[in-house]
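Schema walk-through. Below, the input block comes first and the output block second. Nothing else is stored per chain. Lengths vary across the set, and this one has 124 residues.
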Amino acid sequence: QVQVTESGGGLVQTGGSLRLACTASGSMSTDYSMAWFRQGPGKEREVVASITHPGQIPDYADAVKGRFTVSRDNAKHTLYLQMNNLKPQDTAIYFCATYFSGGLWYDPARYKYWGQGTQVTVSS
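--- output ---
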């Protein structure tokens, strides 16, 4: 069984920064592409960024390109999301997902294990 735990959320003003972290436990828990998703109030869950394994090739949703950076430290079984120049529309619960099974990288159904999420609130 893989356990996924996010941390680092909080309240920040417009233009501020936060760094999210996601730790995945269990054997081979990080031998897969991993991703960050978010779900805002009244919205569907959407992809934010992903990073492959192997290769550590990142990909981003258009809404966050140039502001967010995804990275991973496989030795620590940890995925990161550095979020800069935050905007009120970034307010959401952010989820970490792992065990990507192939297919569309932005499809939540392609990821097997999820964390409980961490709240990010950006005030205007």
